[in-house]
Amino acid sequence: MRLGAEDAFAWPLRGLDTEELDLDEELLADLSSVKALLGDWRSLASFRRLNRELDEKYGVFRFIILHPACQWLLKTFGEQYEAWRHLELVGGPITGLTTIAVVMFTLWRAKIPTSYVLLALLFLFQVHPLLVVSIMGAWAVWRDARRKPLGLLAKRPLPVKAQTPRVLEPSGDFDRFLTAAVAADLQAQTWDHIVMGSNLAALHTAVVLAKLGRKVLVVEPGATLAPDLRRRNESTGEELDMRVLTLGNVDWYNNLLKPCVPDIKWRRVGNKSDGYTHTILYAEAGGDCLLLRPGRQRLIDAVTVLHPTQRKAIESLILNVEQTRASAYTYFLVRSQPTWARDWNFLDRGMSDAFDTLAANNVADALARVLKPAGDEQGADGSEAAPDSHAKATLGSLFHLEGLPAKDISVAAYVMNVSRSLWGLHTIVDDEAGSGPACNLARKLVQALRDLGGEAITLSQPEKPATRAWDFLTLSSEQRHKIVGLSGTMEGGRKFSLKCSREVISALGLAESLRRVPKEVDVPSFCSRFGLLREQRPRARVVFKL
């Protein structure tokens, strides 16, 4: 008898023609145990056969592939793959083309920003959002690659090709005072243009005209050339940079200054240890700014150079700001929350009175107290002497009023805005003598002007205040006046007279010096960018009204 035969245990019952059989219980128990054993054997055989098949199919990765999490991922990927196979990046218009044209025209007439109009157009044509995001990302990458650095988000310095600087013979001091010998030399020459003023735009205009073959004389009424770029410390004589050149627009300024100063180079503002961060202080409304080095004492010294007589007031103001800085930050943090949130905020409990007192002081009151003259000094009429208006205006600009009245600005706003940590700015490399970037640029522009046959002089001596000891020379005919030069009195009472054959140009209004370039000159011959800007901006001629 074979053990695997299922009917082998039923042979004793065959041939018995009975309806009921009384079987022994022990025999039935043995029969059940044998059947259970046969079932376990078959299950074990099936399990081993399945393991062999899985090993042959998946190998050592069977436990990873057959894991429930992996199976869920495979199922999800399969569903997404099927969805991608039938994905349409650009569908048909959701409405008629005429309706779309009317909607676009309406948005254009309503002066909706172009970006919003384009998004609306993409929506009307059922463009997939993934395609829109991909296009925007590709455009951002292309923009960064073509235009770098980009404003305050610059991450790479501007690559400037190394050039061997020309060896120039010294042609006099940077500041040249109008003496009798200098006046005699200048009066013997024929000048095409006289530029009154020596700010950055005026010096650049003079150099451009000189490169075009004109003889240009720059006359500074004050005692220092390029007063918008540098100041002298009256106590030490040290030059102080008054401007961080090119706040991000390095490419534009590089093309602008390269023809005038060929050896110009750029560097990042700051150093690696502080993450190239720095603080700038806007000293005037025209955009001139003072580069402030880290540290309280350096800040006090830098601002004091502008107004030496206000050192104690400036020091007191800066110290008070440092003491209230943390409170001001907390105040604005609390006040930015809704009322119901402030009632439960721990910052508002116990300190709200101090915050309110701080914010109640406006800029006008703070300046009046800080700039109050010391002692019992009184005015000529017996009233209390008023603070220096120029010093008050300069210190008031520290608050970044943005055109708002000083009485409407809280002192806490000044605490939060007096130090602006910017990153990614570039400036011109310092010269070998250690002068700052703005002073270095002024020196290079004046040197370039003198090398091209021009000259730059000052009418006031450095140790004396600037006075108006000169007048314009005019030619009158038929009630029309033409300025042909200027005349005045030099030190010692001697007269001088400087004339030009073309026109006298005022430095006031020369915010964009490219407007001074004559139309008849082929400007793109030495810089293609000049010609493009000249076409985009109309030529505006600055004249004096008599």
UniProtKB/TrEMBL annotation:
Residue intervals passing through the bilayer: 89-110, 116-142
Keywords: FAD, Flavoprotein, Membrane, NAD, NADP, Signal, Transmembrane, Transmembrane helix
InterPro entries according to UniProt: FAD/NAD-bd_sf, Retinol_saturase
The keyword Transmembrane helix appears for this protein: yes
Secretion signal, residue range per the UniProt entry: none
Family statement: Belongs to the carotenoid/retinoid oxidoreductase family. CrtISO subfamily.
Protein known as: Uncharacterized protein
Source organism per UniProt: Pinguiococcus pyrenoidosus
